Structures are given as structure tokens and as C-alpha cells.
Amino acid sequence: MAEADPGILQGLAQVREVEAADAAALDALLREATAPFIVRGLVRDWPLVQAGLESGRAARDYLLRHRRDAQFTVAVGAPGSDGRLFYDAAMGMNFRTLRAKLPEIFAKIDADEGDPAAPPIYLASIDVHDFFQGLHEANHVDLGERRCLASIWIGTRTRIAAHNDFPANLACVAAGRRRFTLFPPEQFRNLYLGPVDNTPAGRAISMVDFRAPDFAAHPKFRVALDHAQVAEMEPGDALHIPSMWYHHVEGLEPFNVLVNYWWREVPMWLGQPQDALNHAMLSIRDLPPEAKAHWRALFDHYVFDNDTSVTAHIPEGGRGILDPMTPEAASRIRSYLLRQLAR
Fold this sequence. Notes:
This is Cupin-like domain-containing protein. Residues 115-278 form the JmjC domain. The chain has helices at 6-9, 23-32, 47-54, 56-66, 102-112, 128-131, 135-138, 221-226, 273-283, 289-304, 327-341, and strands at residues 13-14, 16-18, 37-39, 71-77, 84-85, 95-101, 121-127, 149-155, 158-163, 168-175, 178-183, 229-233, 238-241, 246-251, 256-263. The protein is an alpha+beta fold. It has two domains: 6-263, Jelly Rolls, CATH 2.60.120.10; 273-341, no CATH class. Strands 2-3-13-10-15-8-7-4-6 form a nine-stranded mixed beta sheet. A six-stranded mixed beta sheet has the order 1-12-11-14-9-5, with no helix packed on it. Helix 3 packs antiparallel against helix 4 (56-66).
């Protein structure tokens, strides 16, 4: 399989590399970060990384020793699809989603090894604790008090379209190599995002083929590339992706494993902004222009410009949802919204 056109990546900024001698140093870097950074070799001492350095099959054997007896969800692409997991011509998916146990999935990877036309196989965002036993204990990053979701991503050569995530992310290459191409959040208009609801994995993705961009159809993608950063990652390297940064991800070897940690910088009991956006499209987007302008002003007043003038004239104790959010208030609001949406 050919890698990305070097002409597209040539000249792009490289993600900043930093050093983290211990957990405290990493914590400080994460707290201060406003852009991606790489820590080379952060997890190189993991047993899983060491197995992967021996061979892809050794990494698979290591994972099999820690697997739980469970059905895994796996995406299987079309033969000759060049590893791209994306839409088909009818805006369905160009891959099948199947359920199988890990030995069966790895047996297929073993059988296809060395075949350049083999279908891509990809296990995405598998919960480390739910699907493996002892894997986290032997292979993890100390992220202090952060409440993290630890996931593992396993696959052959794959290309995952640019998308973003609300949580912050620390992505650690455990086997193979990966290339991330990253864009600041404000570049969303230049990435030509696809549908919000019909997506391969829950987030809107860029419709641009990074291996063969169609600049006639996507001319503003050139602007996005002016702001892009590239991270070429080896086994043991870790990449921090701040919240909402877009990232295109390529698995570059016949077998690739990544372990990542997601966490929110805000309390877990706060709502998901994507839910609010979806509801706004349902209830506001198709209103007449004058009504939309009024609701835009209300959103600015109550949400985006919510200074003390919003509540100064209301007696304390009677401000309701306008007061600073608490877990109790969030629970009441969520219950109220569920009742309203069920009508």
C-alpha cells in the first residue's frame, strides 16, 4: 500500500516534541497545552510495546493472553480499498461491522499477512478494562487524578478520516507506526465535514481524501493545510490531542495497535455540547431569518456572553438555571429535557 502523497505532507509543520521525566512533568504539560505535542518513548517500556517491536504476531499473542472471552466489534473493509474506512458511493459505509472473538479476528489477520489487497481490519475504541484482563495494569500511563476512558485500537493498514473529539486525548503507539495530521478546531469550515448524524463512528468526518485531495471540489482544504501539523509516531511514542482538534489517522504497518486515554477538562455531569447542537438544528435552524436572529441573540446573552449582567437584577436564590451549574441542577435540567423531548 502506498503511503500518503509526500507532496501533500511536504512542508507541513511538525508537532512539537517535548520531554516528560515523570508523571508530574507530564501532568504540567497537559495542563498547559493549547496545541498538540509528542513525548517520544513515553511508553516504550510497556510489555505490549516490547512485544510489538519483536513482531506483529508477537503483539497479537500478547493481546490474546490478556483477552476476555467476549465478542469484539470489528470493521472489515473492502479488498483493494487502500485501507480507507469511509463512505461508499451511496453514502453508506464502505465496510462491514461484524462481531467475533479476538482469536478469530487475529486468525484472519494472520492469514492475510503479506497480501497487499487484503481487506482492512479495524477494531476501534475497544474498552481496555471491559475486554482485557491485566492489560491496563501492565501497560498504562499515570495521568494522576484524571478520570480517563482507556481504549485500544487494533488494525491492519488503515486510513481514518479527519474528525475531532470533545474529550482531551493522549494517544500511545503500542505497535506499528501511525501518522496523525492535525488541524486546529477553527479549521472545520476548510475540512468539508460530512453529515453530522450519518457518520462512520459518531463524529462528523472530513470528506477530503488526504491521499488524493480534489482541490477543485475542496479548494479551501489548501487553507486547512496551511494550519496543519503532522506527527509521525513510532512504537512507544505518545501524542497529546487537545479537545476539539481535528485529526486524520493512518496505520502505516501491516499490524498497528494504539492505546489512548480520553478525559474531560470539565465535570462529567455537564451535558454534551454535540447534543445541544443537534437540538438546535432540530428547533432553530429552519426558523425564519428574523426568528433565528432573535435566538442567536438569546444564545449570546445566556450562553456565550454570560457575564454578571445576566443575573445582577435577579435576587440570589431565585436565579434557577442561570446560577452556576451544580450536579443537582444538571440532573434537574436533564430530567426536564427528557420530559420535553418525549412529548
